[in-house]
Amino acid sequence: MAASAPVKTRKSAPGQTVSIGAATSEAESTVRSQVVFAETLVVSPEDVEVRRQRIAEAAYLRAASRGFAPGAELEDWLQAEAAVDAARGEAPQVVG
Known about the structure:
Strand order of the largest sheet: 1-2
Distance between the termini: 39 Å
Helix content: 40-55%
Number of strands: 2
Number of domains: 2
Shape: elongated
Structural class: alpha+beta
Radius of gyration: 20 Å
């Protein structure tokens, strides 16, 4: 069995490594690294907190509109998260 080319990786966030595939040349490795870097979104802690507060408020309003009946808290949060992200014109964020 032939040995496969090593997979190039880089740290994208604390504790996370992103695989960008096996590079066939140094130039390809550089281009792939630039593509992954270009797709990396840097979000300030303040932006994360503002987003969380907006989601919490929207989830609260959803729960209030259904009389705070138990059992739908997660659905309230997920729907609020989707609405906040859609209002900002962004794809859902992964934080953590």
